[in-house]
Design a protein that fits this description.
- By secondary structure, the chain is an alpha+beta fold.
- It has 5 helices and 5 strands, in the order E-E-H-E-E-E-H-H-H-H.
- Strands 2-1-5-3-4 form a 5-stranded mixed beta sheet.
- Helix 3 packs antiparallel against helix 4, helix 3 packs parallel to helix 5 and helix 4 runs antiparallel to helix 5.
- The longest helix has about 30 residues.
- It starts with a strand and ends with a helix.
């Protein structure tokens, strides 16, 4: 049995304390977790102002949702650490790049280094091009929120890296075609 606290984009879940727990205990727990000193708690549209009232008096039960709203003083000090969703997106981008670098990059480097003297079949070039394009599309499908600066930059850098590899491969394929090798 838990209670959810909405704080900006974050959702915090905590175990429902006993019914006779005063609101001040919940406030203290949230204060320690969020590092905010002043905030309002709202439940079902009502601002919870009496810290001595119990959660039963406020009708807070399992599944209840509380809104945590920082006051003007603490709104400026809200933590800038990535949210769990932003962290997940960062991890996805990093995983995609790590996979690309470990599986495709060695073979791509061989093909690019060989250039026009390469004895690699044309299908190897096309296969690598297709795999790079798929990676680019997976990165493109990730949509970071507008205020996730770190995730947006990381994704943008990853897209540039993959696009650069794809462009280099396309130039090599074009040169091979021009030389009649493909």
């Amino acid at each position: 049995m838990s209670v959810t606290v909405k704080w900006g984009r974050d959702r915090l879940a905590f175990a429902l304390p006993p019914k006779d727990t005063p609101l001040s205990a919940i406030r203290q727990s949230l204060r320690e977790y969020t590092q905010l000193h002043a905030f309002k708690l709202v439940h079902k549209g009502a601002v919870l102002t009496d810290d001595q009232a119990t959660i039963a008096q406020y009708h807070i039960t399992a599944g209840s949702v509380l809104m945590l709203i920082p006051t003007a003083d603490d709104a400026l000090h809200q933590p800038q650490a990535p949210s769990s969703q932003e962290s997940a997106l960062l991890a996805t981008v990093s995983t995609e790049l790590a996979t690309l670098r470990s599986t495709l990059l060695p073979e791509l480097n061989q093909l690019l280094a060989a250039g026009l003297s390469s004895q690699f079949p044309a299908k190897d070039y096309l296969r690598l091009g297709e795999l790079l394009l798929q990676s680019l599309l997976r990165l493109d499908a990730l949509a970071p929120e507008r205020d996730w600066e770190q995730a947006r930059k990381h994704r943008k850098d990853a897209v540039k890296e993959v696009q650069g590899l794809l462009d280099a491969l396309d130039e090599t394929i074009a040169a091979r075609k021009a030389a009649g090798l493909q």
